[in-house]
Design a protein that fits this description.
eight-stranded mixed sheet; about 15% strand; single chain; 18 helices
Length: about 400
């Protein structure tokens, strides 16, 4: 299979934002498909100018007014973080033409620096959207497919994916380049991606001095994926200060390599002070960082459960962002040891989800969901056990076993 373009769930939201805001900022990790998406939707009506190219960047930095006069709206400026000095002049143009939507589309892959600059220059003038690697529904060609709890009578999609194919996808990951070109060597691509990420993105951030030590930090964090994050233990294992570990984690979050899940508490303050769980936005990069490249080792190894959980949580995280929404995802854990992998807060309801790296769902897999529902009563929905099999199966008390391929 070789596809020229994979439809993205973000398309309707992006098109709407272009009609309503003078500027749109599209952020996400490198190679997540930002440029391809914009060329597909708007390529015929606006030029795309990459600011990563040294000569173009020099022109933008050297004479921003002349540069903007040369590239008049509507225009796309790709990798705007390389020429942040353009932003005040873009603001000036936007303010002079506030009634004209869709003047500028700006893209970037360094959220920390870019968003600070955008906030200072374009607050209230720009819509900010995020594009991460592909979701399962995008890969399947169903970018608008609802999640099972979003419809009154959920029915699984017609997906015939074997147990082995699921693990192959986990190891390969969801970056468009590897999905569109199944013949590409995934490990070679992932090694190149990590090196490019370190050289281009991380080197530009002042918080990181030693790239080799930072790469050790990244690999140590990968080993802890889908687990509670103890920064003190992580810092000690890598040989850095806790404050350094905190800064480097912020770098990884800002560049969309990882995200955190907070525990669910009714008291919002408690959510901020309890230990979070850490996940990688792409399971392929996670697998590469922990040294897994064979299906048999991944499926039967000690990280099988963490990889499967990371896949499901990342799928839900990406799905929300690709709809233009901020994810409302949490986990739940009690002092007695009961834990639900994911809790989705949807309006006034809580949807508990357990993830199992098994193709044979059983009623006892829903035990933690039952404990969660006892604690939260009417606010808690029935719940789901996501598994690697192919069947939808009632597990009792309103809990459904649901196949991963149909999520």
């Amino acid at each position: 299979m070789s596809l020229t373009y994979i439809p993205r769930s973000l398309e309707p939201t992006l098109s709407r934002a272009i009609r309503e805001f003078p500027a749109v900022v599209l952020v996400g990790p490198r190679q997540s498909g930002k440029t391809t998406l914009l060329q597909h939707l708007f390529g015929a009506e606006r030029p795309l100018v990459s600011l990563e190219t040294p000569d173009v960047r020099a022109a933008a930095v050297g004479d921003p007014r002349a540069f903007l006069d040369l590239y008049r709206p509507p225009v796309v400026f790709d990798e705007i973080q390389y020429a942040p000095n353009l932003l005040p002049y873009i603001k000036e143009h936007v303010d002079a033409h506030r009634d004209q939507p869709g003047q500028f589309i700006l893209t970037g892959s360094q959220n920390l620096l870019l968003m600070q600059q955008v906030t200072e220059s374009l607050a209230g003038r720009a819509a900010v959207l995020k594009l991460l690697p592909l979701t399962q529904r995008e890969v399947a060609g169903e970018p608008d497919r609802p999640l099972p709890w979003e419809v009154e009578r959920p029915a699984p999609a017609e997906q015939e994916i074997s147990y082995g194919e699921v693990w192959e996808q986990i190891l390969r990951g969801f970056f468009p380049e590897l999905i569109k070109n199944p013949g590409r060597d995934a490990r070679l691509w992932q090694a190149s991606y990590v090196q490019t990420y370190l050289e281009r993105d991380v080197r530009n951030l002042r918080a990181v001095g030693d790239l080799t030590l930072f790469q050790n930090f990244l690999r140590s964090l990968a080993i802890r994926a889908a687990g509670l994050l103890n920064l003190s233990d992580l810092a000690r294992d890598v040989g850095i200060a806790v404050n350094t570990a905190r800064d480097w984690l912020a770098v990884l979050e800002a560049s969309f390599q990882v995200f955190l899940l907070r525990p669910y508490f009714v008291n919002l303050g408690k959510r901020l002070v309890k230990a979070p769980k850490v996940y990688f936005t792409d399971t392929g990069l996670l697998s590469y960082l922990v040294g897994l490249h064979e299906v048999e080792h991944a499926a039967a190894g000690p990280m099988a459960g963490a990889l499967m959980e990371n896949l499901v949580v990342a799928e839900l995280f990406k799905t929300s962002l690709h709809r233009g929404e901020e994810p409302t995802l949490y986990f739940w854990r009690t002092a007695a040891g009961s834990e639900v992998d994911v809790v989705i807060e949807r309006q006034s309801r809580l949807i508990p989800i357990e993830v199992k790296a098994s193709a044979t769902p059983r009623p006892d897999m829903a035990r933690a969901i039952a404990a969660f529902r006892r604690d939260f009563g009417d606010r808690a929905a029935g719940g789901y056990v996501i598994h690697l099999g192919k069947i939808v199966l009632p597990l009792g008390n309103g809990v459904l076993a649901w196949p991963l391929a149909a999520l």
